[in-house]
């Protein structure tokens, strides 16, 4: 009868080649690299199509045993429901890249000179004809007839920048 190796620090330290699987967490193992270093890995077949899912957590002493088991348990939950953890990770990375791209393209705050110019246009051209109306009622979606006889585009830009705090 074959003896089942325990997944203890002593058994991991004595491991010189091959791999040692964690009996408490399916798919979690420690594998010895050709260089002699040890790395924590996850390997399991996905429910549904049986595709092999392999992930690497990192070098052996870097992460605690409990952290590695939590990591593998989260992967097991996905694998057992038929979700590919690699696809989930790709989607998370794509969402993060999109979020960073949007953040880098975000409108910078207007400089004091720009704000002064827009307030000048507003007080000089819009207020005399539209003073009785609420500024929030002045929207470009309602047509350009709402704006004073200055360039409708300029009026729309000024009002939107004052309402939203941004604009051109």
Tell me what you see in this structure.
This protein has 168 residues and is α+β, with helices and mostly antiparallel strands. Among the domains are: 9-83, 2-Layer Sandwich (Double Stranded RNA Binding Domain), CATH 3.30.160; 86-127, no CATH class. It is 44% helix and 14% strand. It has five helices and four strands, in the order αββββαααα. Strands 1-2-3-4 form a four-stranded antiparallel beta sheet. Strand 1 (19-21) and strand 2 (28-32) form a beta hairpin. Helix 4 (112-130) packs across helix 5 (152-164).
Query: How far apart are the termini?
Result: 78 Å
Instruction: Please provide the ordered H/E string of secondary-structure elements.
Output: HEEEEHHHH
Oligomer: single chain
Kindly identify the CATH topology of the domain at 9-83. Answer: Double Stranded RNA Binding Domain
CATH architecture of the domain at 9-83: 2-Layer Sandwich
Amount of helix: 40-55%
Mind telling me the C-alpha Rg? 31 Å
| β-strand amount | 5-15%
The number of E-state strands comes to: 4
| CATH superfamily heading of the domain at 9-83 | Integrase, DNA-binding domain
Shape: elongated
Structural class: alpha+beta
Domain Integrase DNA-binding: 25-92
Biased composition (Basic residues): 104-116
Organism: Sphingomonas koreensis
Protein name: DUF4102 domain-containing protein
